[in-house]
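Input/output pair, single chain:
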Amino acid sequence: MDRAMAFRQGRGRAAWNLWVVMLGTALLWGSAGCISIDLLGDGAAAPLAESVVRGERGPKILLLDIGGVISGGVSPTSLLGFATTSMVGRVREVLDRASTDEEVRAILLRIDSPGGTATASEQIYREVMRFKTDRQIPVVAQLLTTAASGGYYIAMAAGTVQAHPTTVTGSIGVIFTSVNFAGLMEKLGVEDQTITGGEFKDVGSPFRRLSEEERGQLQSIVDDLHARFREIVAKGRPQLTLEEVTALANGRIYSAPQALENGLVDRIGSLEDAVGLIEDRLGVSSSRVVAYHRPSEQRRNLYARSMPGLPLRVLFGMPQTIGGGSGAISQEGFAAFGLADLLRRPGFHYLWWPGLRTVGSDY
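Output:
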């Protein structure tokens, strides 16, 4: 065996050993209850289990989570590349499960999201409205760290909107996301040779600059979606006139006190305050807050939130903050992963993300 071959074999063994160590570490974290490692996906075939996260007796309050970037699509997130349930699909599944339980008397909609796609935000809004109308039950939205754009859109399905004292909300607007590599391609001597059947077939292509006519076309779609957003806010905030909603819907974000002053939220308080408000609405002194989740997920209290199974590429392939003695990956890492997945292709979004601004929109 020559030295070159021995070197290649040694390098291969080193890579294999590193992979084993990474996998073992990931599985160890998972077994310690700090992080969920899903090898095959999110266990979508398993029926949802119920956990009581607060209270011991009384009617049930369903805790419904809207967390992270809102998207109706699925992406491969397991070790072997299997897709997980989309947020829209998960919300529908949870509400279908709750519809079979007559003890569920209210929904606590917990929102911590910068928004996402326009369609997914609309779909989740409609799902909550459908359940609320069918069951004639109160829905209270609790806004947490960020409940902006699509996150605020979904909150409009609630009869009462409460912000945490440190919530950032608003960002009522639309953004079209796309990139342009035309300048770079010119420097590299690369030419776009796309052939289309239809003048506007490749509008928004990253390989060439937009014409003014194309920009106007895209802007018209952004304007229509923005009008829909204002319509939803006007329905959800009946105390505001359409003119007042229009003035507030300029893409600006608001602190909790600012949102309260402008009528975008009804109250400022904590999750516990929101539970107390629902109990008052139901005329009871105690209740059970329940959450539905996969058997592999854990829900121990009112503040816990289930995380889907994580791919090793998220654990080891992206810059993350893993530490603090808990083995926890930073929320920023999860958010960045979700945003990157969302922005892989052009689209129209109800999304607040500082620094993200494109075609003809300040929102």
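Residues 30-351 form a domain with the 2-enoyl-CoA Hydratase; Chain A, domain 1 fold (CATH 3.90.226.10). The longest strand covers residues 104-113.
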